[in-house]
Specification:
Blueprint: H1 3-37, H2 45-58, H3 65-83, E1 87-91, H4 97-106, E2 111-115, H5 118-126, E3 132-139, E4 143-144, H6 146-154, E5 158-166, E6 170-173, E7 183-186, H7 188-193, H8 195-201, E8 207-209, H9 213-221, E9 226-230, H10 232-238, E10 242-244, E11 254-261, E12 271-278, H11 285-296, E13 300-307, E14 315-322, H12 328-340, E15 343-351
Parallel strand pairs: 1-2, 1-3, 7-8, 7-9
Antiparallel strand pairs: 3-4, 3-11, 5-11, 6-9, 6-10, 12-14, 12-15, 13-14
Helix pairs in contact: 1-3, 2-3, 11-12
Length: 353
């Protein structure tokens, strides 16, 4: 076959794919109608996780697993929008890393609502102005995002998903070269993640903290003497050239994000559960609370402490572990931990990212 023959073959395949996609969309409309009549949520994260896992396992290539997930993410997003349009809040303005994470989780067929702060994202979900919210919770370089942990203590929202996003920091500027940069601006965490590079390459240039990396890119777009540390998405959105790519000190830099919602996610077969608890101030208290996990073979993936607001010098412990709260083994462990802790809150069970 020559090139024209292969192109004709591609056209035929595209037509078949389009017909099948429209048939899938028609099925999604019927499912949306059934969900409305049964008062079920339009977005079922456990179902979408199961679809992606099944398709990746079924594929013999040559498409990679990441390519399959990216393609079907947009298919799911488009069909979901036919069932019921979703509104998703995130830490704005547009082109922040949180915006990138939200796009990776929900796809393009969603109404995205930028918020001024992480606390505002929680408020959007709690007050029903957004169906879901996306917030950062920890970074491999800078550690926990404390404002997110603090809001999880009191929120009525539940965790319905998680994802990890590699963080590639770029120096964006309209300057001709590094010698022309007079000020570097970015979010405090982005500045911290590039501290060594800045000391080596721009040691005498002052830095200024901004509310977000996107706000920094917007400032750099209007002043050639200013350089911003931000993402390639911010570079494209605000039209600022990348003066130096990949300036993060840690090449494995990544941020974990949580998806917040108002309805718990069901079991997907590969889940995590997040809890917090307050324990008695006595020897062996932490061991006693964690012992039910070990006895049942439940793997802990994270443990973090935060000072309690009151009384002073007491702490809230955050724990993530593998499993879903609706399974018997996890339910029995949580019941036992609840009896041993002063306070226990299940923040959510959700498909593992």
């Amino acid at each position: 076959m020559n090139l024209d023959d292969w192109r004709s073959r591609i056209n035929d395949l595209d037509n078949q794919i389009l017909n099948l996609l429209n048939k899938r969309a028609e099925a999604a409309l019927e499912i949306g109608d059934l969900k409305r009549r049964q008062e079920l949520p339009a977005y079922a994260p456990e179902r979408e996780a199961e679809i992606l896992a099944r398709l990746v396992a079924r594929s013999d290539g040559p498409l990679t697993a990441d390519a399959i997930r990216a393609i079907w993410r947009e298919i799911l997003s488009g069909c979901r929008a036919l069932e019921h349009p979703l509104t998703v809040g995130y830490l704005g303005p547009p082109a922040t890393f949180t915006h990138q994470a939200a796009l990776q989780q929900f796809g393009a067929s969603v109404e995205y609502r930028p918020a001024r702060s992480i606390a505002d994202v929680f408020d959007e979900v709690e007050r029903g102005r957004a169906h879901f919210g996306v917030v950062p919770v920890e970074n491999t370089t800078e550690g926990a995002v404390n404002v997110t942990l603090d809001r999880l203590i009191d929120t009525d929202a539940v965790i319905t998903g998680e994802l990890s996003l590699p963080i590639a920091q770029h120096l964006l500027s309209r300057a001709e070269g590094l010698a022309d940069v007079k000020l570097v601006v970015s979010h405090p965490q982005a500045l911290a993640q590039c501290r060594r590079w800045l000391a080596d390459h721009l040691p005498d240039v002052p830095t200024q903290e901004m509310a977000s990396t996107a706000a920094a890119a917007e400032l750099a777009a209007g002043d050639a003497a200013v350089a911003a540390i931000a993402s390639d998405l911010a570079a494209r959105l605000y039209g600022v050239p990348v003066l130096r790519p990949r300036i993060e000190d840690n090449p494995h830099n990544a941020t974990r994000f949580l998806v917040l919602g108002r309805h718990p996610a069901g079991p997907s077969g590969r889940d995590k559960t997040s809890i917090l608890f307050v324990m008695r101030n006595q020897p062996g208290a932490l061991h006693d609370i964690l012992e039910p996990f070990a006895r049942r073979g439940l793997n802990l993936t994270k443990i973090e402490s935060r000072p309690a607001r009151r009384p002073p010098w007491e702490y809230v412990i955050f724990v993530d572990f593998e499993g879903h709260r609706d399974t018997p083994v996890v339910a029995s462990a949580l019941a036992e931990i609840g009896d041993r802790a002063l306070f226990l809150k299940v923040l959510g069970s959700y498909p593992a990212g």
